[in-house]
Amino acid sequence: MDFRLDETQQAVAAKVAGFVADRVAPVAAGHDRAGRFADGFLTELGDAGLMALGVPVAHGGDGHGAVTVGLALEELARADITACWPVLNAALIAGIIERSGTPEQQAAWLPGIARGRSVVALVLTEPGHGTDAAAIELAADPDRGGGWLLEGTKTSIMAGTFATHGLVFARTGAEGARGITAFYVPLDDPRIRRTRLDDLGNRAGGRATLEFDRVPVPASAMVGRPGTGFVGVMRGFDYSRALIGLMAVAAAGASLDEALEHCRTRTSFGVPLGHHQGVSFPLVDHATRLRAGRLLALEALWRKDSGLDHRTEANMVKSWVPSAAVEAAQQALLTMGHLGWTTGRAFERRLRDLIGTQIADGTINATRLVVARQLLGRDSSP
Question: In terms of CB atoms within 10 Å, which end of the chain has fewer, N or C?
Fold first, then answer.
């Protein structure tokens, strides 16, 4: 088995790392304090090619595979995991449009996503329906003109305060997953009310509640056939869950690297701090777990690129890696002592932001359920 990256993958990772060092790392703490990205920052992400990574070349993108997208997000997450969410949304939603959209929809929507001029949000979760996404209630009622009227409330929508477009999941049919349809909707309609949520972490991520008041959308906004929206987004989650695992490993790894350097340079009782087993061994354990999590995430993405089923691997990643990353980031902070506790360093910001990866795109138990059904079969699993 060859674990080496090819030249293109190495070049993309190096390019993103350079951009991140120059344009992301210096402003990450300020974005966190302000609770918003600076004006023009999302445009910079688009101009740097981060939104185009997974968009087909035919529609203005770079057409990179899943592993390459993951490597780019990994570099971005080392500086600011919050900046990853718009990039991840672009890859996830572009993939859904590529699979399920018509050629006309792809030509109309994908170039804007690739350039970063269309900033997209996944508009799925509702106040009463998070993990049980198949029970969503936001209604898409037939309009006299042949389109639809969207009415209801969505919440916990990452990028919801600033996204220009949303892939909105609404009920067009009977109860259950087969009654849900996806629509690609501009979010600048005055009948959409956006309310920013005040969050523990990912403070610049613009998580919001969106209220739709009979918002008209044309028939051409429907992505795929009626009733296929839920299936489409669940297939997309098998991709995004592996990406989130790499993001989590990278952010926690940044804290772990700084803690290791601290153990080399800080002295305690006349010797480097790392001489004390009680300090160094926990860091070794967390480095081991992060390495294993990274390999599992890359395996899931490699399987996707190879056209292989990757549901088991991606959901294993999401059920375990974010929690391992939170624990590693906390141990790194504790290793730093009072230096980690202060808000003048990135330790506490990374820890707060990493907690969000445990929730996004499926909780631990939701992803365990997927794995159980893959391993045992539906008849023998919860």
Answer: N
Q: How far apart are CA 185 and CA 93, in angstroms?
A: 12
The CATH class given to the 121-227 domain equals mainly beta
- For 334-368, write each residue's pLDDT tens digit: 999 999 998 888 999 999 999 999 999 999 999 99
How far, in Å, are 12, 95, 155, 257, 260 from residue 168 at the CA level? Answer: 31, 15, 12, 40, 44
**CATH tag, 230-380:** 1.20.140.10
Q: Is 214 left (phi over 0), alpha (psi -120 to 50) or beta?
A: left
- Tens-digit pLDDT profile for residues 197-236: 999 999 999 999 999 999 999 999 999 999 888 787 888 8
Is 0.90 topped by the overall pTM? yes
Strand-pairing partners, residue 180, are 171
User: Domain extents for the chain?
Assistant: 7-118, 121-227, 230-380
